[in-house]
Structures are given as C-alpha cells and as structure tokens.
Amino acid sequence: MAITLQKGGNVSLSKSAPGLTKIFVGLGWDVRATSGDEFDLDASAFLLTDQGKVRNDNDFIFYNQTISTEGSVEHMGDNRTGAGEGDDEVIKVDLDKVPREITKLLFTVSIYEAEKRHQNFGMVSSAVIRVVSEADGVEIARYDLSEDASTETAMIFGEVYRYNNEWKFRAVGQGFNGGFAALVKNFGVNV
Amino acid sequence: MPAILQKGANLSLSKASPGLVGVVISLGWKLPSNYSRPFDVDSSLFLLTQQGQVRTDADLIYYNNRSSICGSVELMGDNYTSHPASEWASGNQLTSPDRNASTGGSTGGSTGGSTGREDLEVIQVDLSKLPAEIFRLAFAITIHEAASRQQQVSLLSEVVIRICNPAGNELVRYALPQERGRETAMILGEIYRYNNEWKFKAIGQGFDGGFAALLANFGIKV
Asked: CA B57: distance to chain centroid?
C-alpha cells in the first residue's frame, strides 16, 4: 500500500522498511496519442552536500551521465516517448554506497524542450513518478504529475536525506519556474 | 467568476460547485471571416471507460446520435446562433436551449459566410445518471470534409469550451490558444472521475487525421 504523501510530508525509510538499502525512482507516462511532438519526460538525480550543492558536475545523474562516481546512483536509460508498460525511466539508488559527504539525494522530473514544444505535465497522460523499495517492489510514495503538477514543466519530486543515522524520504512536489536549466544551475552544476 | 484554465490544467467541479449533478457544456467557435467556401464544424462527445475507450459505438454522441442510452447525455442542437459565444458573458443566465432550433444541413454543421459567424453547441449531462463504468466524457470538435476542403481547426478563432451549472452560472472555461497546428479534429476538454470527485481538464490536443483518427483513438472502428 503506497503512501500518497502531501507536499512536504516525509517518511522514514529506515523505520517503514528496516534494512532498506536499495530504492529506485520510477517515472512512467503514456505515449502521446494525439498529433504533435512526442512527450519526452526525463528523470534526474542530484547528489548534494549539506551546503545543498553538488561536489562537481559528476553528481548530476541524467540521460547523458547515467552513473555516479561511486556507483550509488544509476540511471537505467533514457526513454523519449513513454513507450512501454510501467516505469519508463528508472533511477536506482544503493543507499549503502552513498559517500558520507553526500547528505541528500534529490530527484527531479522535467519535460525535454517543454517551452519550445508548448508542453506541460497536464498534457501528458498517466504521468506518475514514484519511489519504490527495490527488494519487494513496495511503493513508498507516488506523485501524479498529470493531475497535481498539471501546469508545471519541471519539478522537484522528492528527496532522500540523512537524519540521525537513518535515511528519510520527503515528498517535495515543487514546480520550478524558469525551466530545468535554471534548476540544474541552482544546485551548482555547470550547464 | 469562472475559472479560466490553460492547456493541461484541471479543476475539481465537485469543489467548485458542491453537489453538482447537472452540467451544461457549451462548445463555441468562430468561423473565419471573408471565407466563401463551405466550412462545417461539428461537435461530438465520447463516453469512455477507465481504459479511455467506448463500450460500444453508441457511446459516441454526435449529430446522428444525440443522446446516450443511459439518458444522461444529450446534444441539444447545433447552429445555436441565437446565443453566440460573445453574448455568454460570465454569470449570464443561460436560457433553456430550444431543441427545435437546429436547422443545420445534413452534417449538422454550419456554413461559413463573410461575417465570421459564431457557433455554439450545447450538451447537457446528468452526472448522477452516468453508469459507474464511464470514467470520462471527452468533448471534441471536428471539421467536416477537412481533407478535401483543406481546412484545419487553426482557421477557427475563439474556440472555447465552457462548463455551466443548470442555472447558467459558468464554472470553468478553456479557450484554445491560436496555434498553427494541422489538426482537423480537436479534443477541447474532458470531464472525468478522480478520487470520488468530478473534474474538468483542458485538453486542447487533436488529430491531423480528423474525425476518423479521433474515432480510432477512442476505440470506434469505421
């Protein structure tokens, strides 16, 4: 039974699922049925220090850089149309491998060339992002982008962060004005 | 004041108007001015299951099938020119549509003149009578013989879908932006169930392949 978190709500990964070390973020959406440009949604992750910045550009995991230096975060591949059942993009996280100085993993979803193509999440059918326990497939949280982020083009879905020697997940659900490039810069990545 | 949505946005009708049972949906558009050739625009709506498909062809409501089997949906008539869209200022009372007013041609459409005439088609829905397996109502406009006449939705202006309560108070509105698409069939909006509420979504997406592509999308074989 998945918890549908309110914005700002959080859940302790260690308590809700003791021994949980492997999670993944899944992003799914439907192929566009109507005429026009395809909907190309992208899931990305940022490895952040307690200053809220990346150490360097290698801490930004996305379709062009699919694995972090230590192998703790891995993007399983770009999907440009939403073709296929279930999760169309997956980012796997091994919490045990996350370096000490990284205190937060932040997950985002954005629409590729949203502005040029005049697209937003509300135009996409069945766009959902969720965080799942890899071992048993139990959904920890999900966010319905089509419905609840309808006029956004880029958003911070949630974050996994260290708190008193455990990992917690917080659903952020915050749209980001200025597009994805501005968001990436905001975390100290050079684009 | 009605809510004015942008493309992709949605609104809870149940929250905007608690206890809402009857809704009046109007689809309006303006034909191009100084246009001498025939230009026929038709309205249709689809009763859809959770899979986004019709159950049978009878779930298509259009000029040749004006009401649903369940009796919850009725296309009131076209060529509703006695109340053009521009007179529908927010909050105005909607007079009861005259069901005999339809004098359209064989397609039920409207023919363009030199004045850029406005059209308004009205659909009445009783949400309480909709079968439980119907999750969505999709409202569309199509251009008759679009391919041979080389006409697209983008030639129309002031394409608007409005949702009113039975008293005529407008709850929500979506106006199609003027874009240079090649669509000849356009889904303007959808009313749908979501978490025990009725919601409305501004769609504004369509098909270059016209009515046939629209029908195929919702599972109707032609």
From this structure: 18
Question: Do B8 and A123 make contact, defined as CB atoms within 8 angstroms?
Answer: yes
Comparing CA positions, the residue from B220, B201, B209, B128 lying closest to residue B166 is: B128
**For residue A71, what is the domain's CATH number?**
2.60.60.30
Residue A38 falls within a domain, yes or no? yes
Q: Is residue A48 included in any domain, yes or no?
A: yes
Chain B nearest CA to A133, separation (Å): 25
Token representation of residue A36: 């026009």
ipTM (interface predicted TM): 0.87
Asked, for residue A15, whether it belongs to a domain, the answer is: yes
Q: How far is CA A161 from CA A12, A64, A73, A165, A175, in A?
A: 10, 24, 14, 10, 20
* Stretch (H or E) spanning A44: strand A41-48
Query: Using the beta-carbon criterion (under 8 Å), do B179 and A118 form an inter-chain contact?
Result: yes
Q: How far is A182 from chain B (nearest CA, A)?
A: 23
Query: How far is A109 from B177, CA to CA, in rounded Å?
Result: 26
Q: Say if A79 falls within a structural domain.
A: yes
- CATH code of B3-217, in short, is 2.60.60.30
Q: How many domains does chain A have?
A: 1
Q: What is the pLDDT of residues A154-167, one digit of tens each?
A: 999 999 999 988 89
Name residues of chain B where pLDDT drops below 50.
80-110, 112-114
